Amino acid sequence: MNQMPDKFNDLKTIQYDKSNHIATVTLNRPDKLNAFSATMHDEFFAVLTDLVNDSDIRCVLLTGAGRGFCAGQDLGERKSGEKMDLGDKLENGYNKNLRLLKSIQAPVVCAVNGVAAGAGANIALNCDIVVAKKSAKFIQSFSNIGLIPDCNGTWVLPKLIGLAKAKAIAMLGTPVMAEEAVSWGMIYRAIDDETFTQEVGNLIETLANRPTRALSFIKNIFDESYSNRFGEHLDRERDVQRVCGLSDDFAEGVAAFNEKRKPVFKGH
Questions:
Q1: Is the same domain home to 191 and 134?
Q2: In terms of CB atoms within 10 Å, which end of the chain has fewer, N or C?
Q3: CB neighbours of 117 closer than 8 A, spacing ≥ 6?
Q4: How many Å is the maximal CA-CA distance in the chain?
């Protein structure tokens, strides 16, 4: 059983729970479609820092409260007609949080329960497995206000769906419905709204009972594949597989296979 630090008892914009090796992070400004405020950035950073340092966590679920996942930045905090240095805002807000999100060693599942727009869409796409309600949609809304996709959007989108589609939806701000996002390779699954909560629960329970260390290596080495050369990547696979082969989980997996039973992984 995971213990929650007392400092998270008074979170205002995020719900945070840890139980049975699973952490659930819920963006919680439903009246604003969970758009990011300054307070949410700070609280998200605190939660992610805790997750990075908690080796007992075996799966993380990120989702939103209410009818939306995240509408991106709360533009209500900006003055009309105001110009500003958004580079500093990114570096001290979204970017530092995304670096932490990517550093979490357990698999991170994003359950998109409604609209995911702007930064909200790209935060979702930076998670390891993305599932969405069939009624959900993803919107690269940046160009509507004269901006480019941020939160790693210009890196991840072309790799997921190809350059042509990525440029088009970024320039046009065209909404992409969940089932279309699946067919494009943007996300993993679109789930009926009525069974969404149950199926997400089944997914994170399955992941939490799989060999967590191997899953951590999988997420990291897949990301590395974009920058490694062929020979370098073969060497990297060799080195990682050496560590996996010496793990308790590998020994348990082979024993369970030979004994025709379900493996019981320790996750480390």
A1: yes
A2: N
A3: 33, 70, 71, 72, 138, 139, 141
A4: 68
Per-residue pLDDT at 21 = 96
Tens-place pLDDT, residues 156-181: 999 999 999 999 999 999 999 999 99
Amino acid making up residue 54: D
Average pLDDT, integer, range 92-98: 95
Give the tokens for residue 89.
Answer: 């805002």
Tokens, residue 66: 């209410």
Q: How far, in Å, CA of 34 to CA of 26, rounded?
A: 9
The whole-angstrom separation of Cα 260 and Cα 91 is: 51
The pLDDT value recorded for residue 240 is 97
Say yes or no: 171 and 188 in one domain: yes
Instruction: Give the domain range for residue 116.
Output: 6-208
Q: What is the mean pLDDT of the chain?
A: 95
Q: What's this model's pTM, rounded to 2 decimal places?
A: 0.94
